[in-house]
């Protein structure tokens, strides 16, 4: 019996939720068009016609209609209501003669105090959508008022208040007078910065500050500093907060007001407070900042399982130590396993004065590859110096030592390479999971010579550029150009890791992974001294997170300075924006390979 009663109660509650929205009034407007008419319809949607008398319903409809019209300056409308179905609970027809529209005849909008000379406030004044002679719009008045208040908080005018804030409407004259003036009072500055909970030395954290003690207060700089701390991966919890009293001012202002007047500070006490400070000959307009952090876990483990057409099933295990000491050094190791490739990589990072921009890096790795006509066992150690510039470009100068025991087609070698290199990269994205705008560029130059003990001589350069652009929210364009070139007279000593191959999910679709390169007399792949690839793709949203794609790829690896032919593939695909990243499924056709007319490509992860 109790279960039956419970079911009835739950069913009744669910039914009330389902039907509660069915009693909203559906109104149409006659005699008026445009935003004002749309505003009337919007206001009337909130009318609930359930359990209300006809007189009260009609009164509510008229009252809401008048309020909706006043927002657009119509203060003397003639309103007629009709309910076609006669039930007063579904539809209404509102006939409106709006009458004369109120216009602004007098306007006084301004900023006094320190903000009078603040460029941000001057821009805000220039952008106020209120002009003498314009039709009255309440939303524009409220928008200006809100903008001034927001700017005052963002830019440290904590004693700001409106000395005038009123709108005088004379319906009989269809005129309005608006008075909106703010006295900002003094601008506050950043005060003492206190750190709490950090396992990293304080001096290192201070060097990351985008502001200094005494700089004008900007809320955006606090958010920027919070983001910088997060990018270090040193902490799992970060709070960067200004110390502001309950009245909205800096930590010391309320205390000074009380000392001077014996009263608690009022909310809009800017002019009075400034006068008291001047009288006492002191300026205490500082805002202390509290930086509270929680250290990140010292050991972090992650396992990933995936699949790609190029390599088949794959698994990766990583072990990261985001901080090893109070200087913020970090260590990361990763083990990657797939059918053709197995590798272990590690990186020891030593941040310098600016941890996000300058660092030393010690990398090491061991890699085994067995793919097509390539068998290789490679070990390497690399020392690098990294700089990140204000224009988002990252420069890295490195020296790499590689020992590789390889078989490439009919060539067997064991080589030791010692070579320096330099690279420049830049990646810009919006919405990194599935960006609608972004680009990535990379250029690298490496050189090796037997004069310093290396087994091969070469000058090698690689470049890659990708772009993502969109048209609206449903059309996306992806382009890519990449390539490389090598000058050497000891090509037989060049290991597979430095030779060029094309083909695969990220290269020329329609061809298998790294299957395009020069061949020997037996048709075995040798790898090339040069490579060039390009791709163009158009994506169109089908529904929700599902997109369709069409694409064309071209490219090849070769030995001459320009290829005799470029291999081309084209096809169609599907994109699904999953919680773990975009899933890509493509069907590609190689134009010059009739035996392998179609090839499937599958991958998970963003374009870059």
TrEMBL record:
POTRA domain mapped to chain residues: 188-238
InterPro entries (UniProt xref): Bac_surfAg_D15 (IPR000184), BamA/TamA_POTRA (IPR010827), D15-like (IPR039910), TamA_POTRA_Dom_1 (IPR035243)
Domain Bacterial surface antigen (D15): 341-608
Keyword Lyase: no
Gene3D superfamilies: membrane protein fhac, membrane protein fhac: a member of the omp85/tpsb transporter family
Record's keyword annotation contains Transport: no
Domain of life (superkingdom): Bacteria
Keyword vocabulary terms for this entry: Cell outer membrane, Membrane, Signal, Transmembrane, Transmembrane beta strand
GO cellular component, one term: TAM protein secretion complex
Localization terms from the record: Cell outer membrane
Ranges of residues in domain TamA POTRA: 28-98
Pfam families per the UniProt record, alphabetical: Omp85, POTRA, POTRA_TamA_1
GO biological process: protein secretion
Signal peptide: 1-24
Quaternary data: Interacts with TamB to form the translocation and assembly module (TAM).
The family this protein is said to belong to: Belongs to the TamA family.
PANTHER family: SORTING AND ASSEMBLY MACHINERY SAMM50 PROTEIN FAMILY MEMBER, TRANSLOCATION AND ASSEMBLY MODULE SUBUNIT TAMA
Protein name: Translocation and assembly module subunit TamA
Organism: Chromohalobacter japonicus
């Amino acid at each position: 019996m109790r279960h039956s009663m419970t079911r009835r109660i739950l069913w009744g509650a669910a039914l009330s939720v389902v039907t509660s929205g069915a009693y909203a009034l559906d109104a149409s407007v006659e005699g008026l068009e445009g935003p004002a008419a749309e505003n009337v319809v919007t206001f009337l949607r909130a009318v609930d016609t359930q359990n209300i008398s006809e007189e009260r319903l009609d009164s509510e409809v008229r009252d809401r209609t008048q309020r909706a019209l006043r927002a657009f300056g119509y203060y003397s409308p003639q309103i007629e209501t009709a309910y076609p179905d006669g039930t007063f609970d579904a539809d209404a027809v509102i006939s409106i003669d709006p009458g004369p529209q109120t216009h602004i005849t007098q306007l006084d909008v301004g900023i006094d105090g320190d903000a009078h000379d603040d460029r941000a406030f001057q821009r805000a004044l220039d952008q106020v959508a209120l002009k003498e002679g314009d039709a009255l719009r309440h939303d524009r008045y409220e928008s200006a008022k809100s903008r001034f208040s927001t700017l005052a908080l963002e830019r440290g005018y904590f004693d700001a208040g409106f000395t005038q804030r009123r709108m005088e409407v004379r319906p009989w004259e269809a005129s309005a007078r608006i008075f909106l003036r703010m006295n900002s009072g003094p601008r506050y500055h950043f005060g003492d910065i206190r750190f709490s909970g950090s396992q990293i030395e304080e001096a290192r954290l201070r060097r990351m500050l985008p502001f200094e003690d005494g700089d004008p207060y900007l809320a955006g700089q606090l958010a920027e500093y919070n983001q910088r701390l997060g990018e270090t991966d040193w902490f799992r919890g970060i709070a960067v907060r200004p110390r502001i009293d309950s009245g909205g001012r800096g930590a010391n202002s309320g205390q000074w007001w009380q000392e001077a007047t014996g009263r608690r500070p009022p909310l809009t006490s800017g002019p009075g407070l400034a006068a008291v400070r001047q009288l006492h000959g002191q300026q205490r307009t500082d805002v202390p900042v509290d930086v509270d952090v929680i250290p990140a876990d010292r050991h972090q483990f992650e396992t990933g399982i995936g699949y790609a057409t190029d390599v088949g099933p794959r698994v990766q295990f990583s072990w990261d130590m985001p901080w090893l000491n109070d200087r913020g050094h970090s260590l990361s190791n990763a083990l990657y396993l797939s059918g053709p490739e197995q590798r272990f990589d590690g990186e020891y990072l030593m941040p310098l004065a600016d941890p996000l921009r300058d660092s030393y890096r010690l990398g090491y790795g061991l890699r085994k590859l067995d793919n097509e006509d390539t068998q290789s066992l490679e070990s390497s150690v690399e020392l690098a110096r990294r700089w990140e510039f204000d224009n988002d470009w990252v420069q890295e100068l490195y020296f790499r030592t590689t020992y590789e025991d390889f078989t490439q087609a009919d060539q067997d070698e064991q080589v030791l390479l010692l070579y320096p290199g330099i690279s420049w990269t830049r990646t810009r994205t919006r919405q990194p999971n599935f960006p609608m705008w972004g680009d990535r560029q990379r250029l690298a130059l490496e050189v090796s010579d037997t004069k310093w003990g290396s087994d091969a001589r070469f000058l090698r350069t690689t470049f890659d550029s990708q772009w993502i652009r969109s048209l609206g929210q449903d059309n996306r364009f992806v382009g890519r150009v990449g390539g490389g070139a090598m000058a050497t007279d000891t090509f037989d000593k060049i290991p597979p890791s430095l030779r060029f191959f094309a083909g695969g999910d990220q290269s020329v679709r329609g061809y298998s992974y790294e299957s395009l390169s020069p061949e020997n007399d037996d048709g075995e792949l040798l790898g090339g001294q040069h490579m060039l690839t390009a791709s163009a793709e158009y994506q169109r949203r089908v529904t929700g997170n599902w997109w369709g794609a069409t694409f064309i790829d071209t490219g090849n690896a070769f030995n001459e300075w320009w290829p005799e032919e470029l291999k081309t593939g084209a096809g169609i695909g599907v994109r699904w924006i999953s919680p773990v990243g975009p899933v890509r499924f493509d069907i590609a056709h190689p134009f010059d390979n009739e035996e392998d007319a179609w090839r499937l490509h599958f991958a998970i992860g963003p374009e870059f």
